[in-house]
Write a structure and sequence with these properties.
It contains ten helices and 13 strands. It is an alpha/beta fold. The chain folds into two domains: about 200 residues, Rossmann fold; about 90 residues, UDP-galactose 4-epimerase, domain 1, CATH 3.90.25. The strands form four sheets. The protein has a seven-stranded parallel sheet, with helices on both faces. A two-stranded parallel sheet has the order 7-10. The chain is globular, with a radius of gyration of 19 Å. Bound molecules: nicotinamide-adenine-dinucleotide. The site of nicotinamide-adenine-dinucleotide (NAD) has 27 residues, from helix 1, helix 4 and strand 5. Nicotinamide-adenine-dinucleotide binds next to helix 1, helix 4 and strand 5.
Length: about 350
């Protein structure tokens, strides 16, 4: 029997690189697509194509022969809160083009199933104003008041998936990730998210030194390890659930507590120096009631276990980098579309 086929966009990125590995380990034939090759480690995809998915013709190339295949659309211009708060126009521009074109090309090629990676940033600001936030249920996304820029675009693309099912019968799935972290993710350059940034700062700090923390550090989030994100995505695409589904952990932790946890993993005493910075909402966590009901499963890797893996990987990267010639911090990878 021929291998099941999958096309993964964003396969040069953090979650996409992990997803390709998992699919290959399961015997899939995989085509990866991205603007760039994976930064950390070589891809194991059968084909890896450098394409700009903002462009329609390049999406047609990416999706060619998709009939019967699973399409995982992870490509996005994105980053941590500091990046998404300051690049709203380009994020909306790029991601609307990517998602519109990839979805339409997948439909034209009669892909078997299509999974879109949305975000907890779709949830309304008015439900996330306290660090002691009520966990967010899928239906809480409306009435809409999402994160400006990135969150609006995610909500729009979620809706597009729904209408492609209703109008064309394309089997679409939508996952709402809540802060995915783990090794092989961006840890500097401005696009990194809080767990990676904190791991980097702690790894670079000497014992007893202070690290910078944006805001008062009492804002809360929940964090989900990348292996669980991959497992959940794969379970969801094979399920019959067409509405958006949370994928995250329910455990709420403040940024200050996260710093303390990473410091204890590193075996360092680290103090916090609070500075002005992008903060996002005051509190955000996932309600996994529907996740459990739909998939009969939920993320299992503890924050401690996941952070240990992540810290050790980032510390090793930094050590290797300082042993070599000092590298400049990376500039944002995506060039404007002309
Ligand atoms: N990591 C998280 O915590 C998180 C949370 C919520 C949602 N998501 C979503 O999950 C998906 C994957 O996230 P990630 O953390 O792996 O991000 P990432 O930035 O590591 O990966 C995204 C990839 O998309 C590629 N890309 C950007 N523009 C492109 C273009 N025009 N053409 C082709 N490729 C392009 C980038 O080069 C990058 O490799 C994204 O859609 C993101 O919005 C992630």
């Amino acid at each position: 029997m021929p291998a099941q086929r999958a096309i993964v966009t964003g396969a040069g990125g953090f979650i996409g690189h992990h997803l390709v590995r998992a699919l290959k380990a399961d015997g899939y034939w995989v085509r990866g697509v991205d603007l760039k090759y994976p930064e950390f480690g070589t891809t194991v995809a059968d084909e890896f194509e450098l394409l700009d998915l903002r462009r329609w013709e390049q999406c047609e190339t990416a999706m060619r022969g998709a009939r019967g295949a699973e399409v995982y659309n992870l490509a996005a211009n994105m980053g941590g809160i500091g990046y998404i708060e300051h690049h709203k126009a380009v994020i909306m521009h790029d991601n609307v083009l990517i998602n519109t074109h990839v979805l339409e090309a997948a439909r034209e090629e009669q892909a078997e199933r299509y999974l879109y990676t949305s975000s907890a940033c779709v949830y309304p600001i008015y439900r996330q104003q306290s660090p002691d936030v009520t966990p967010l249920r899928e239906e809480d996304a409306y009435p809409a008041d999402p994160e400006d820029g990135y969150g609006w675009e995610k909500l729009f693309s979620e809706r597009q998936c729904r209408h492609y099912w209703e109008d064309y019968g394309l089997e679409t799935r939508v996952v709402r990730f809540h802060n995915i972290f783990g090794p092989l993710g961006t840890y500097d350059g401005g696009r990194e998210k809080s767990p990676a940034a904190i791991c980097r700062k702690v790894a670079l700090a000497r014992d007893g030194e202070a690290i910078e923390v944006w805001g008062d550090g009492s804002q809360t989030r929940s964090y989900c390890y990348v292996d669980d994100a991959v497992e959940g995505m794969r379970r969801l695409i094979h399920s019959s659930h067409r509405d958006p589904l949370n994928l995250g952990q329910e455990r709420l932790i403040s940024i200050n507590e996260l710093v303390d946890l990473v410091a204890s993993i590193a075996g360092k005493r680290v103090t916090r120096h609070h500075i002005a910075g992008a903060l996002g909402v005051r509190g955000r966590t996932s309600d996994n009631t529907r996740l459990r009901a739909v998939l009969g499963w939920e993320p299992t890797v503890s924050l401690e276990a996941g952070l240990r893996q992540t810290y050790e990987w980032i510390a090793a990267q930094l050590a290797a980098r300082s042993a070599a010639a000092p590298a400049p911090l990376r500039a944002p990878a995506v060039a404007p579309l002309r």
